[in-house]
């Protein structure tokens, strides 16, 4: 069933465990992620990023409606979240979609600019019953490059959460977006210090680059929401390529079905590692 993000994250935090959030690009991703989560018997978050909305010609409604419908039919609790939103118009477009949360990303602005934009977004979100995540200390690699080594400072994080009223904080602790190898080295000591300093749940971005054992360790150290995208794209695209290499194919279902199965297998494994 469709469940609120705040509820899933709150439960995970209370239980000292994690909840995985996977990026949805197409309907097949939503179906695959839910199939994997059902197979493992774990709750899951489906997240649609601003980049994914851009891919869908800038329109949130169609992919949101499909994703919500998949969540509603799921045998496990599934939340739907809007990820890495930089545009206020897109944030406001969640109203009426069934999406219960968003990550507002003003992390590339300076500290004062990030606080001002995030506080405004959080105020608006709370007026509309939405849960809001924000980021402090830019997690590297959104354009594919490796992390610049930026870290979230615990004292600044405490000040940022108090000044903005956000419900969760994405922290820079050594991971980097869009890694296709799992070689990221997390700063577990920093995760522990952030967890001690903050009451809000911590979010790990760029989790595709983190080895399995370190994902488990990160959750034990205090990460609650674990965002995963790229590793699913690797599974999806490898499966498509294998089908196309195997011989002449015309019907897209011939390569989309194995791709969806490959993503489901990856999700089933990761949700068990994380939650
Ligand atoms: O917000 C989404 C995640 O941070 C995904 O990162 O594609 O590197 O796993 P990733
Ligand atoms: Zn991210």
Automatic annotation (TrEMBL):
InterPro entries: Aldolase_TIM, Class_II_FBP_aldolase, FBA_II
Origin: domain of life: Bacteria
UniProt cross-references to CDD domains, sorted A to Z: TBP_aldolase_IIB
Transmembrane intervals: none
Entry protein name: Class II fructose-bisphosphate aldolase
Names of the cofactor(s): Zn(2+)
């Amino acid at each position: 069933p469709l469940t609120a993000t705040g509820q899933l994250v709150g439960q995970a935090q209370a239980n000292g465990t994690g909840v995985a959030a996977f990026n949805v690009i197409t309907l097949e991703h939503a179906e695959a992620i839910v199939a994997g989560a059902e197979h493992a018997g774990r709750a899951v978050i489906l997240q649609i990023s601003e980049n994914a909305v851009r891919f869908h010609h800038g329109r949130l409604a169609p992919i949101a409606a499909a994703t919500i419908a998949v969540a509603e039919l799921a045998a496990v609790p599934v939340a739907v979240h809007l990820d890495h939103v930089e545009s206020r118009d897109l944030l406001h477009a969640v109203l009426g979609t069934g999406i219960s949360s968003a990550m507002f990303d003003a992390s590339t602005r300076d500290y004062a600019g990030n606080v001002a934009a995030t506080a405004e977004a959080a105020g608006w979100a709370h007026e509309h019953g939405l849960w809001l995540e924000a980021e402090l200390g830019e997690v590297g690699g959104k354009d594919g490059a490796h992390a610049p080594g930026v870290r979230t400072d615990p004292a600044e994080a405490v000040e940022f959460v108090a000044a903005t009223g956000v419900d969760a904080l994405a922290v820079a602790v050594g991971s980097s977006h869009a890694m296709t190898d799992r070689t990221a080295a997390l700063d577990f000591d920093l995760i522990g210090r952030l967890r001690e300093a903050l009451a809000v749940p911590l979010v790990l971005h760029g989790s595709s680059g983190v080895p399995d054992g370190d994902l488990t360790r990160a959750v034990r150290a205090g990460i609650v929401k674990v965002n995963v995208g790229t590793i699913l794209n690797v599974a999806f695209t490898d499966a498509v390529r294998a089908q196309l290499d195997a011989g002449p194919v015309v019907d897209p279902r011939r390569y989309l079905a194995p791709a969806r199965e490959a993503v489901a297998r990856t999700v089933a494994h990761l949700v068990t590692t994380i939650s």
